[in-house]
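Let's practice the habit of predicting before peeking. Look at the sequence and jot down your guess about where helices and strands might fall. Then scroll down.
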Amino acid sequence: MHEKESSNILNEYTKPGTFQNNSWIFFSLIILFIILFFLFKNEIIEKPLSSEELKSSLEIFNISSHWVVKKEIKDDDFEGIILVPEIHFQVRNVGNSDLKYVFFLGVFRFLDSGKTIGEGFKMGLKKALPPGQISHKIKLTSGLGYRASSKDAFEKHQKDWQSSFVEVFIKRRSSQLTFFKSYYISRKIEGMNIKVRI
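Done guessing? Here is the structure:
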């Protein structure tokens, strides 16, 4: 009798389609849960910011700039260095929500002509920056600049230097690339006590 009851119970679970139907419902619920989780995470927990909201949530401070040796060149027709502008700064979150994965772009230009020297970019705030907190130091370095035989040569040829500045742009996720602010670039050369003057 006991064996007969056990057999009947097993038959209930081995009827055609029973296990398949239960599995389909189970996996459908899992997929639905995952979709709802990501919708909730993106729309509620990490609500996308508009360009203006992102701009008003950031404060750039502790700014410093100078020129640095980007590359040493040893070619048949030229031996020297490429000196490029660079800016350092920190960011404070003055908004009401965490900031993460903020992209910074620096467009370096000559002051008089507005001609582009080069660009530098950085994916900052890889870890969430809560409201009121301060980021690590972020560095933007131009890919192009002046070419000379040495750093000392820039002091000897001051007349060839032009004043420059950088336009900082910001972007987060689906927001548009937005102009943030412009900053002058110092004429100091990294590793040297001189300040190039014209």
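How did you do? The CA atoms of residues 48 and 63 lie 28 Å apart.
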